[in-house]
Amino acid sequence: MRTNTESVIQTSHPTSLPQDEWLQRISQLSFEHNFQIACWKLPKSHETNVLLDLTGTIKHRKVDLEELKSGFVFSPYQQDDTKEAIYLQSDIYFTLGKGEKESPEPNLQGYKAQEVWEALLQTKLKTKTNQSYYTADNTLDFKSTTPESFKQTVSKAVQAIQAGEFYKVVPARTKRIPLSESFNLVKAYLTLCEKYPNAFVSLVSLPGIGTWLGASPEVLIRVDKDDYFHTMALAGTQVVQGENPLKEVAWTQKEIEEQALVSRYIINCFKQIRLREYEEVGPKTIIAGHLMHLRTDYRVNMKATNFPQLGTVMLSLLHPTSAICGMPKQPAMDFLAAHESFSRSFFSGFLGPVNIQEETQLFVNLRCAQLLDEEAILYAGAGVTEDSDPEKEWIETEMKCKIMQAVLNPTSI
After folding, report:
1. What are the start-end ranges of the H helices in 164-292?
2. What is the DSSP letter of 137?
3. What is the DSSP secondary structure assignment for residue 411, as one 8-state letter?
4. Which residue, 34, 55, 69, 71, is most buried by CB atoms nearer than 10 A?
């Protein structure tokens, strides 16, 4: 495990500001100067992490955890043969607590970092700060998926499964909604943090790429400072109901099998690299906002197994997981390429901090939205097995879309 050696540089103008004003200043300054920005909250944490890349260059890197310096990665669902992701280097990094007043101590790297930090402290907010983010130009003709077309895809998927082409596939759909007239990017991010304390909440805004906001419940890989590797199998979806939903929930055979397929996929990845020493806990029911899922956790002691590259190796094997494309992987991906009428872009890709504070934490980009000038594109998928019902799968995707829709424009639900 590499050691984070960034030095903490004390600013000559210490200041205390409310968290939302810090984020508004960062958003405004980044947008004015074409800085790349990533903000995130880890599950069960109350701190917002902020990272700025000041280089003005979009960098594509292979996610090699032993080689990458501290930063943040943002990967699309469909990678090319290089398996590269967008990499934001940590020119300015700091954390903001949940309290009303914050005085962050930043890690500053690079020749412009001190200058930009000073400018950030002196930034005066404009009257209108709700549009301080980047949008992409290639989404103007992006249409919502119709119920009919999605259900037809599910029906074709069930037929393909019954014909033995694959065991499971995860078709996705889109939903384009107007942003509320009072929409504010920072407020939307902070609302997600409040509503989903157990999720990885993220805001990524990149010039030429666009702005994405999300609250993902699914860890792809985590390598902690004690050299333990973590991943999870997450599948099955139900709405939270009743006073004690964790005790009252009943899972159908379809949902149990769907989750078992994801678990089998992870174990098969371990088998490919002849790894037998791992801990498995689950499946158990977990709550993510107003939804429940089945989850199984996996952990490996990288020191005991003498496998320090396990995080990098497993990332290459896992993505895209069967939870977001299907199993076996290649025939499922071929089916999706033939039947999905849109590009998933960064939906069901992965994102997260790399080698920051001696840890790497990458999450599958689920429950997310791409922001346009006055609209947003929502994405959701549903796991299809031979027992799937097209109407129920459509309803499941609607439930997932409502997570972001309730934050971006509650009146559109």
Report:
1. 185-195, 245-248, 253-272
2. S
3. G
4. 71
Q: Do 202 and 193 touch, CB atoms closer than 8 A?
A: no
Distances from the Cα of 376 to the Cα of 121, 131, 204, angstroms: 31, 13, 14
Q: Which residues contact 250 (CB under 8 A, 6 or more apart)?
A: none
Query: Which residue matches tokens 């495990």?
Result: 1
Contact predicate 165/335, CB 8 Å:
yes
pTM, rounded to two decimals:
0.93
Q: What is the DSSP letter of 179?
A: P
Sign of CA dihedral 287, 293, 294, 299: negative
90 by Cβ neighbours in 10 Å (0-12 / 13-18 / 19+) ranks as buried
Contacts of 328 (CB under 8 A, 6+ apart): 166, 167
In a 3-state reduction of DSSP, which class is residue 327? Answer: strand
The full length of the chain comes to: 413
Question: For 292, which DSSP code?
Answer: E
pLDDT tens, 33-42? 999 999 999 9
d(CA 37, CA 195): 22
**How is residue 174 written in tokens?**
């889109």
Nearest to 76 by CA among 219, 212, 217, 270: 212
